[in-house]
Write a structure and sequence with these properties.
heterotrimer; A alpha/beta; B mainly alpha; C mainly alpha; A: alpha/beta; eleven-stranded mixed sheet; B: 13 helices
């Protein structure tokens, strides 16, 4: 009996110590973030860099769910900062402060076997509202057959911006598949030759899907940065009331530091 | 919730005497024979397919470096590191869940078998306890996860996780997930211990009483040692359920890839922090999570399968060792 | 060397053990109380009509997500018939597929298999039962869904349903097949146990009367284990209802009621169950209206687990006659 107890105690201690080895540094403050899936890669990189610069005195917990989830969580005090990929809406709860951190472009994307070079505004609206439903009716399409619309769930900030920038506030057809995250939308488009969707430029440029030009301008980071590509939107970090404490320092660092600007410029557009 | 499979006590093989040849049977009987063979072989084929496919993909994608490197924040599969932290997370959840579940299960089983058999009130209480454990066994793990979130987001229990900088109790941590995992491991431990206690012959207890030992002393000195292998089986089954559970991890452990301890104390900080386990790593890397890394998902899933296989072998080894030493381990299924 | 100390009295030990045992009951009670308390707002605003069909569930769920503090009563309005229908459909079809397979496999293992195969099949069944659901989901989403989407769904089916729903391969058939594989081992194990407990004299009596093996099984043994088959079905149903992760990965995740009138396309249509809805929306638990709806789904699952446990208990009473424990 004693031997079993000793063995069990030592096993537990070894596991705890073994787990403590990679986690030696203890953070004194934790910033919790939730929200947009489009800005998640950016915020993750920024948080990682900031944490390293401060020698792990600040740690981050980042979860996703969509821009609306970020707004809800920060308004309810559940998280410190919300990632939001759309502009503030009138329906948003009062008292939230939006800090812009970067800009991004929104690209229409198709499967790689459908190298559609360009779509006009009218064509995009006809396709995404369901009026056009055959690839045969779209000039330049590389496939034939029914058009599979892939959209996002309503929590997505990218969807809100897509409707404003591309669809003149019309709604996406109800038959569109609703993916809960950018990654899943990218996957759906990459796996389905008949699919068409929309992604932030970071994902569209990865090479897994075909970014479609809009109104004659190719959707690329260079064009979006120079302003030639018109469909750009902002990423915001949102706090309840003015940011304070560790959160304020983090947001200020993103705004002013060169390291942050370098990270942002790698795949996104600096806001200034 | 993965069910437990009983040890099948099979009857002796039928005597190979003179049996009626299949050719004399009616067609419906032949059909049933064919269907039974088909069903049995399908079962074998499906298992072989799953094991072989996971093995093939695992060997294809698993590199030893993955087991020892930590997940990295990166923009593609190549740089995203390995799954050391998920492995440690799985071990941590087991280390938290089993020590909570085991005393609970053993005490319940002891009470029911030793103290709960006499008198009407006691017997109805026994039935209540057994029914509650059955209900826990039958509850889906996602409901247990939501229950955990509901109680651990109360401010009273904020010490289990931490309070974020907006005043909100995070509610998600290894402690929270581990406590709910103990509910998952409780039924198999309870059933194994109870059946082992029921199988102890009455004369052992009577001999102890005849020697003047009290009931509690009998439990400590006679009964518990004799059900050691049942408890071991129960623990192994509980561990295999804990490492296989995904829903509780996804809801109660947050979205972190790496172990992220919370607070100053080295041990307690780890428990109050978040991280990931093998199962949530597989889910997040599959096309259902963020889906960018099916190769990592396959590699991690292969490691998970290996653990499950090893635990199954361990259960069988314990059963065989105990059977050969003269006891009977009847591990019946959990409702 | 033994440390001498006064041992506890039996009475005290009994009380302590009893208190710990009641802790288990307390956890169940707490679970029901907390889940019901969180679920109450949805039922207060919708009543039992919550389960009925009306309106587009997708837009209703969007509404629940849109408000984070002090949601107006209209935010709670949901009608979850598609979820209820999806849950019942998947469970019923998986059970219909798995039960005959499981009974036949159990008969094979206990009665008909050669000894070597029989020894191999027992660990096989146990292994199938302990494979984690995330691995079933992984195989489903990486192997079966592309196969169904790429090779089984025809372009005409896609076009005919284009105005209603998209067929991507993730849908009813993959969910049903994988779920059947998941619940079959449970039933096999229980029925094997029961078949093994049938007295040998019955088998021998049939043989003495000149009945061949299979006929003896059909006429005698299977009748004797009918309660065990029902208990196995109850257990498998409970398991199938609670499966969340695998269904979320392979079922297409759309609030849609598959329509039998669509012919073969019925099997490719996506759906959602109560458990998979909770997994899909668990990140949105911050919005009070959505959180209350998800807890209401959890309450449905809890109640069904409760009902099935109680029902299983009453079904198992006759099992005790055959000394089948469980």
């Amino acid at each position: 009996m004693h031997r079993i107890r000793r063995i069990a105690a030592s096993l537990a201690a070894v596991t705890l110590i073994g787990s403590a080895v990679p986690a030696i540094a203890s953070a004194t403050s934790v910033i919790t973030i939730s929200g947009a899936t489009a800005s998640y890669p950016l915020v993750q990189l920024l948080a990682h860099k900031y944490s390293k610069l401060l020698h792990n005195k600040v740690s981050f917990r980042i979860s996703q769910g969509g821009a609306q989830i970020g707004v809800n969580d920060v308004a309810a005090g559940r998280v410190t900062i919300g990632d939001v990929s759309r502009d503030p809406l009138p329906a948003d709860p009062a008292g939230l402060v939006f800090y812009p951190i970067a800009k991004y472009g929104i690209c229409v994307v198709t499967n790689k076997s459908n190298p559609l070079p360009n779509l006009s505004e009218a064509q995009v609206q006809a396709i995404f509202t369901g009026k056009t439903h055959e690839w045969g009716q779209v000039p330049g399409a590389g496939v034939s057959g029914p058009i599979d619309l892939i959209s996002r769930t309503s929590t997505a900030g990218v969807l809100t911006n897509f409707k404003t920038l591309f669809l003149a506030n019309k709604s996406v057809a109800t038959t569109a598949a609703q993916e809960p995250s950018e990654g899943l939308l990218e996957q759906q488009v990459a796996n389905d030759p008949h699919a068409i969707g929309f992604l932030s430029n970071y994902r569209a440029d990865k090479g897994t899907v075909n970014p479609v030009g809009y109104n004659g301008v190719a959707c690329s980071l260079a064009n979006a940065t120079s302003g030639q590509y018109a469909a750009t939107a902002r990423f915001y970090e949102v706090t309840k009331g003015k940011a304070s404490g560790a959160a304020a320092k983090f947001i200020a660092w993103i705004d002013t530091s060169k390291a942050a600007k370098k990270i942002i410029s790698s795949q996104w557009i600096p806001s200034h | 919730m993965s069910a437990l499979v009983p040890d099948v006590a099979l009857p002796a093989a039928p005597q190979r005497g003179r049996r009626s040849s299949v050719r004399t049977w009616r067609w419906s009987d032949r059909l049933v024979l064919l269907a039974a063979w088909g069903a049995g072989l399908t079962l074998c084929a499906v298992t072989a397919a799953i094991v072989l496919y996971m093995g093939y993909r695992g060997v294809q994608y698993l590199r030893p470096a993955l087991l020892f490197s930590r997940p990295q924040v990166s923009q593609g599969q190549a740089g995203s590191g390995g799954f050391l932290d998920p492995l440690l997370g799985t071990a941590l959840l087991t280390v938290i869940g089993i020590p909570i579940a085991a005393p609970l299960a053993i005490c319940c089983a002891l009470w029911i078998v030793e103290y709960g058999q006499g008198g009407r009130v006691r017997r109805s209480l026994t039935r209540v306890v057994e029914s509650s454990i059955e209900i826990v066994a039958g509850t889906p793990d996602i409901v247990i996860a939501l229950f955990g979130l509901a109680i651990f987001q109360l401010h009273v229990l904020s010490f289990v996780s931490f309070v974020g900088e907006g005043g909100g109790v995070y509610g998600r941590s290894f402690l929270a997930a581990g406590t709910m995992m103990s509910l998952i491991a409780l039924p198999p431990l309870f059933v194994a211990t109870r059946d082992g206690l029921l199988a102890v012959p009455a004369h052992m207890r009577e001999a102890a009483y005849a020697l003047g030992k009290t009931r509690i002393a009998t439990i400590r000195r006679v009964l518990l040692p004799s059900v050691r292998s049942n408890i071991a089986t129960g623990v192994t089954l509980g561990v295999s359920r804990i490492i296989a559970d995904t829903a509780i991890v996804i809801v109660l452990l947050g979205d972190e890839l790496r172990l992220a301890p919370q607070g100053g104390a080295p041990g307690l900080g780890l428990l109050r922090g978040t991280g990931s386990t093998l199962t949530s790593y597989v889910f997040d890397n599959s096309p259902a999570g963020e889906g960018d890394a099916p190769q990592k998902a396959y590699a991690a899933a292969f490691v998970l399968m290996l653990f499950v296989l090893l635990l199954n072998l361990a259960v069988e080894r314990i059963a065989r060792a105990h059977a050969s030493s003269g006891g009977s381990v009847a591990v019946t299924g959990v409702v | 060397m033994e440390r001498l100390r006064a041992p506890w009295s039996d009475h005290r030990a009994g009380l302590v053990l009893g208190a710990v045992a009641l802790l288990a009951c307390l956890s169940v009670l707490l679970m029901i109380v907390f889940v019901a308390a969180r679920a109450w707002p949805t039922f207060a605003h919708n009543g039992l009509a919550w389960l009925g069909p009306s309106g587009n569930l997708t837009t209703q769920v969007e509404n629940t997500l849109a408000t984070s503090t002090d949601p107006p009563p209209s935010a709670f309005h949901v009608r979850v018939w598609p979820i209820l229908y999806g849950t019942l459909l998947v469970t019923a079809l998986a059970l219909a597929l798995a039960l005959p397979l499981a009974v036949l496999a159990a008969v094979f293992i206990v009665e008909l298999a050669p000894a070597a195969l029989r020894r191999a099949l027992v660990p096989v069944v146990r292994l199938l039962a302990s494979v984690p659901s995330v691995i079933y989901g992984l195989i489903g989403v990486l192997v079966l869904v592309p196969f169904v989407g790429g090779h089984l769904i025809t372009a005409s089916e896609r076009t005919s349903l284009q105005s209603t729903v998209q067929l991507t391969g993730a849908g009813l058939v993959v969910a049903v097949v994988v779920l059947a594989v998941m619940i079959a081992p449970i039933m096999v194990a229980l029925v094997c146990d029961a078949l093994a407990a049938v007295p040998a004299a019955w088998r021998e009596g049939a043989a003495a009367l000149g009945v061949n093996r299979v006929r003896a099984i059909r006429a005698v043994t299977l009748h004797a284990v009918r309660p065990a088959i029902v208990a196995a079905a109850v257990l498998a149903t409970a398991r199938a209802l609670g499966e969340a992760i695998m269904i979320s990965m392979v079922s297409g995740s759309v609030f849609f009621s598959p329509r039998p009138g669509d012919g073969v396309a019925f099997f490719f249509e996506p759906l959602r169950t109560f458990a998979s809805t909770i997994v899909d929306y668990h990140e949105g638990l911050g919005a009070p209206a959505l959180s209350s709806m998800l807890y209401a789904c959890a309450l449905m699952l809890l109640l069904s687990a409760f009902v099935l446990s109680v029902g299983g208990y009453f079904i198992k009473l006759p099992l005790r006659r055959y000394q089948v424990r469980g």
